[in-house]
Every structure is written in structure tokens, then in C-alpha cells.
Amino acid sequence: MFDLLSIPVLNLLLFIITLLTTNYTSLKKQKELFNSKYELLQQHYDYNFKFLHDLLHTCNQLNIQFDNQNYENAKEILNQLTQTTYKEFNAIYSQSLVLNYVINNHLNTLLENNIDIKTTVETTFNYLDLYTQFELFDYLLNLAIKACLINQNKIIIIKAKEKNNSVLFKITLPYIVIKKDLLYHDLNKILSHITYELNIKEIDSNYISLLIIFNI
Hints:
This protein is α+β, with helices and mostly antiparallel strands. It contains 6 helices and 5 strands. The protein has helices at 2-67, 71-92, 97-105, 107-112, 130-149, 180-190, and strands at 116-121, 155-163, 166-174, 196-202, 207-215.
């Protein structure tokens, strides 16, 4: 009699434990997302404050050059400001929150090593959970940065768009020898349970591209 009663009770307890575990996992993910958004906003605030400080300093330099009628020096300062603004804006902004976060995590390395990064993201990545997005973008960006550090070419181009019920994600980086087995192993670990195709293309002796195709 005890055994017959204990089975439903155990099943009920297992159900409650599973429910509590699911709720805990969901709340944990929400907390991680909130923390990620907060950290991203904090980084944007810190960057904007620094950028504004540098901009005011540059404007002061421009005023001095104009007051002294040093127009060539003023033109050079203005050109430098334009280049810096264009470069750093491309380094910190994309249409993906997670990609923004990943790029910002590497911003100091990008700027210190004069690495240009350009993003054109015309889609969302909602079919990938936030953790998977972070792992994928961080892995590929780390790979691209390492390539820049051992090359004279220092440009990273990230593009993403939807086409024929698929999402195409491509990263172009300075040429390096790709160990395909290791690359597939790492991507399969990150994109477990996700179907994808990978195309590796040597553009020329200077650059190589990795194209990941997701079916949605």
C-alpha cells in the first residue's frame, strides 16, 4: 500500500522540482540578459563620456588654430577627427545587441592595435539563444583579431542578411591558415543542435572569409 501511494507522490515531487528548476533557469537567463544590457549601457556611457571629452579638446585645438590663422593645421586636425569618428563609430555599432556587446568587450584591443571593424547587419538572430550568439560572435571575433595581430592588414568586415529563408553570416578577416577540423569542432560545440553550413573562401593573398548559413 505504501509503495502504491509513494509512486504518485514521487512523481508529483519530481514534477515540482522540474518546474522549479525550469523557472530558476528562466530567471537566471533573464538576469544574465539584464546584466548584459546594463554592462553594454555602462560601456556606451563610458565611451561616450571619453569621446565627448576628446571632442571638446579637439574643438579647442581647432579654435586655437583658426584664431592663429593656421588653416592647414586646422584642416589636418579636422581630417584626423573625421577619421577617428568614422572608425570608432563602426567599431561600436551594429544592429545586433549581442554583437555590439562582444565588439565593445574587445574595443580597447581594436583601438590599441589600429584594427578597423565594419559591420552591416540586416537581420536579427532570434533563432539563436543569447548565450549561443555570444559564444559564436566572441569566437569569430577573437579569431579575426588574432589574424589582424599577425598581419599588416587590419580590417575585419562582418555582414549578416536574410536570403531565401536563410540567414547568411559572413566575417572577412586577414588571411591566415585555417585548421578546418579545429574550426568545425569549435563551431559544432557552439552550435550544437543547430543546423548550419560553413563555406571558407580565400579571397586573395590578403583576406579570407567565413560564411555561415543558417536555415530559418
